[in-house]
């Protein structure tokens, strides 16, 4: 999950970056890039499962085919971040980071049980168990850890679950005499159920707007215009990218951006002898991964609120996200990495460019 990655390790990395006086926009772009790279190649991701279903292919063929655009984008992103991140930086651990780690060690009892909540979620996802019971189980384990090991009261743990953690709560665990440095406050003062209410409201609004467009047929007319004039593979990939991006911008919803272009263009891909995994890859390149770069979408709002950096500020640094679209068009123009259907066996055959 891209959102879960950004909301956990991404938040921690942003706190460390603030302590190092690093470029927060660049770090946020790196977090978004990494989160969506993992999301695209994960068989546990909801969007990665949804795309092949609506396009008419299978999950693992979809993931393997996405590597044509995802891996080059990942290599480009890591190369840029490596050189920009190491330029003029000392190899020694920054003093601020040392202070942050020391302060965290004073305030928390770090132990192996802290890994149980994410392990429970991961195990349940692999076993395809119901989401809500898994989330409740992870929350219960977290509360037990807070009360039994960290020394917080049950009331404080429940309050943190609903309203988010605050550094003033350390007094409840008998740590009121320890000074909490500002960088650690930035790291730990967050979370809670109510912090997600604004994003949930936006999701409801997005679905209401999308439902209106779907019922009136206005969206199909609008994206159908973009699909005209398709004459070859490159123009078909370009039309798919354009329609997917249009749906993302008009509905603010990444799932509809996967569904609607697939419904419109699936038969076109088949008629042109192209395997459906070309369609599933392209709608992910232009839908799932582009969504966090649009400020008014669900993902854009979530990433900006979670990482504390506006969407337009981290956009230039989210190299993984927009590079996939660029490589998709390059490969389509060169006819590389395009899976075609064998007319006799109806099996996909990967066609590479002839030199």
Task: Describe the structure concisely for a colleague.
InterPro entries: Na/H_antiport_NhaC, Na/H_Antiport_NhaC-like_C, NhaC_Na-H+_Antiporter. 68% of the residues lie in helices and 2% in strands.
- Give me the number of helical elements: 17
**Anisotropy-based shape:** elongated
Topology order in helix (H) and strand (E) letters? HHHHHHHHHHHHHHHHHEE
Uncertain segments are 344-355
Overall structural class, as computed from helix and strand content, comes to mainly alpha
Radius of gyration: 23 Å
Strand content: under 5%
Strand order, largest beta sheet: 1-2
Write down how many β-strands occur, each being a DSSP E stretch of 2 or more residues: 2
- From the N-terminal CA to the C-terminal CA, the straight-line distance is 39 Å
Looking at how many chains there are and whether they match, the oligomeric state comes to single chain
Q: How much helix is in the residues?
A: 55-70%
Provide mean pLDDT, rounded.
81
Largest sheet: 2 strands, antiparallel
